[in-house]
Amino acid sequence: MNLVIDVGNTRTKLAVFDKNNIITVVVVSQSEVLDGIKELRKSYSQLHLAIVASVGVLDQAVINYLDIHFNLLVLSHETPLPFNNLYATPKTLGIDRIALVCASVQQFSNKNVLIIDAGTCITYDFISAKNEYLGGAISPGIRMRYKAMHNLTANLPLLETEIPENFIGDSTTSAMHCGVVNGVLNEIDGSIAQYQEKFSDLTVILTGGDTKMLSKQLKSSIFANSNFLLQGLNFILQYNTH
User: Fold this and answer.
1) Residue/partner pairs of 201-204 with CB below 8 Å, 24 or more apart
2) Has this prediction a pTM greater than 0.85?
3) pLDDT tens digits, residue range 153-162?
4) Which is it for strands 121-127 and 21-29: parallel, antiparallel or unpaired?
5) CA 213 to CA 203: how far, in whole Å?
6) What would the pLDDT profile of 84-101 be if each residue is shown by its tens digit?
7) What is the CA radius of gyration of the chain?
8) What is the pLDDT of residue 242?
9) Backbone φ/ψ region at 201: left (φ over 0), alpha (ψ -120 to 50), beta
10) What are 157-207's pLDDT values in tens digits?
11) Of these residues, 6, 35, 96, 170, which one is catalytic?
């Protein structure tokens, strides 16, 4: 059994896999990571392999514990990967984006795949049917857009995310919701259309924290999978230990 650890900016996901099957996913704060790992070890005595992917800060004590109790792989830009990386600056490619591409290699091999991760930022990653990673795009996520309007203006309020009822906002509040949510939806649909013009038989994956809200609103045909990154990390672990 495998332990997959995805360290984000504000929280960490701990997932237990039995081969390719997710057994459980636990979300913890950064201060609770070590306790969460210890609890999973108690519950799943067959856990022996572990992978850590971090875009945030992980306490060294956690790494030390994992190194003692697991066969540990810390994902880095030196880790062998199952695709040809044609990114012009491969060492700047986010660890999370690498994991998403690996998930697509495992689940949609020999296909043109666009992975959209709607989280703090919205990332777009494209891998061709020839197993070549070409790159993509990065834009502000939904919460970042709300916060930017509040923080960079004198009078606009900080709003909670809300799907607008109309594309025409008839108040400042509704206009902000229209600008953020409809702006993101149109951006995603427009990006998908651009890729579809150039690449036939495009498979589109939507993942990330805003998956559930966005997937129901998009015009384009997509596969929604909130665990896609975790599945990619598990595949990298398997790829490097078998």
Assistant:
1) 201/111, 201/112, 201/129, 202/112, 202/113, 202/114, 203/104, 203/108, 203/111, 203/112, 203/113, 203/114, 204/113, 204/114, 204/116
2) yes
3) 999 999 999 9
4) unpaired
5) 20
6) 999 999 999 999 999 999
7) 19
8) 76
9) left
10) 999 999 999 999 999 999 999 999 999 999 999 999 999 999 989 999 999
11) 96
Kindly state the tokens that stand for 123. Answer: 């990332």
31-52: buried (b, 16+ CB within 10 Å) or exposed (e) per residue? eebbebbeebeeebeebebbbb
Burial class (CB within 10 angstroms; exposed 0-12, middle 13-18, buried 19+) of 101:
buried
45 vs 115: CA distance, rounded Å: 34
149: amino acid identity, one letter: M
Residue with tokens 């990619």: 232
Phi then psi for 117, rounded to 5 degrees? -110, 105
Examine the residue annotation and report whether 96 is marked as an active-site residue of this protein: yes
Cβ(195)–Cβ(70) under 8 Å?
A: no
pLDDT exceeds 80 at position 224: yes
Q: What is the pLDDT of residue 125?
A: 98
Quick check: 75 and 234 in contact, CB under 8 A?
no
Average the pLDDT over 51-71 and give the result.
91
Q: Which two tokens stand for residue 55?
A: 């875009």
